[in-house]
Design a protein that fits this description.
Elements lengths: L8 H9 L5 H19 L2 E3 L2 H12 L11 E5 L26 H8 L3 E6 L28 H8 L5 E6 L5 H7 L2 E4 L19 E6 L2 H12 L17 E4 L10 H16 L3 E4 L9 H16 L1 H6 L6 H11 L3 H21 L5 E5 L19 H6 L3 E8 L5 E7 L5 H17 L2
Parallel strand pairs: 2-3, 2-4, 7-8, 7-9
Antiparallel strand pairs: 1-3, 4-6, 5-6, 5-10, 9-11, 10-11
Length: 432
Amino acid sequence: MKNYANSSLKELAACIARREVSVEAVARAGIARIEELEPAVHAWQHFDPELVIKQARLLETQAHSGLLYGLPIAVKDLMDTADMPTTYGSPIYENHRPLVDAACVAASRSAGAVIMGKTVTTEFATFRPGATRNPRAVADHTPGGSSSGSAAAVACGMVPAAFATQTAGSIIRPAAYCGVVGYKPTYGTLSLAGIKSLSPSLDTVGVLTRSVGDAAFFIGALARLPLSEGLNADAAPSRLRIGICRTPHWERAGEGARAVLEQAARLLEQAGAIISDVDLPAPCAGLTDAQIRIMGYEAAAAFAPEARTHPEGFSDAFAVLLEAGKAIDGTSYVAAQALAVASRQMVTGVFDKVDILLSPSTEGEAPAGLSITGDPIFNRMWSLLGNPCVHVPLGNGPGGMPLGVTLTGPRWGDARVLSAANLLERVFASNN
């Protein structure tokens, strides 16, 4: 049976539209792939083949409409689904059945997508690992978090696209560890309604895919934005100005992360881009600490109801996070938000000099073992700034696990950063 997850979303949508393959056939191929690999990967929190077929057959009785018509996708188990359980990665919500879909899920259904199931999330999208294994690893390595199941499902071809969310590094880090594309849009591009929020001023809905084009196509369809238009055209690379941004945390980058950043810069330069080194304004050195304070403060407020009624359902790690958040006073929170506002204005000025910033995605390859999900040290400040980011995988590091880089654009410059990411992806492919 053909594995349609290896086709691009646009190609698969075109095949379905031309009736070269049925929606049900695509769904059945996805089911077969999941049933084959799930015992080893553990990517799914909820998977009901009968419900998948029911969705596919219902779609086939309706007129073909929507850019995602018939396309199989995964939904992170942080997002409400009216026809499937939603646990948010916590035993507190083990039997939770939402009445309506999250806004992004509803939008995907309206666009014609087939929901294959719910993928594993870490506890309330924080750092306590789930059961998911990294499918790129021979021995156990973390798939990252919190969008662990989504990244693993895409990496091993169970689905071509999976919803993800990011508060600190939960899109970019799993993408990096599992060797897939991760796209965190500009903050606010997609609604957070119906998503269990950890930190409302940081949480962002994005996607994990196997190509930059698929990421642009998927989010573009949901946000009604022309993100994939002109993506494959030559983007006048001689005019593309790339700033290498090693970030204030460069000393944390391992040998592999440093090497792949230089590799990406060389590839883009060979394609005609202008490469320069960029230092962020000095106040940006405080953004990671500010993100931690904001996330902790808002998490303590967001989970106050569960803390009052079901504190025994929290893991020790999550309870510690909430206690730390309660220790942050309002003055410190306001100061962190003020730094974020000022830094956004300063970083906007950086993009007057360069078109795209190129930076590490992670400290290195996925850590061995399943007890941790890695550190979002290279992601936190971009989440706080709200800029669009795309992780592009660029092969494997010295340990044999995936590595890649993050491209960041100006706020609401999503089309620009996707175009640059697509260029890097194509140049890398042509050189390998």
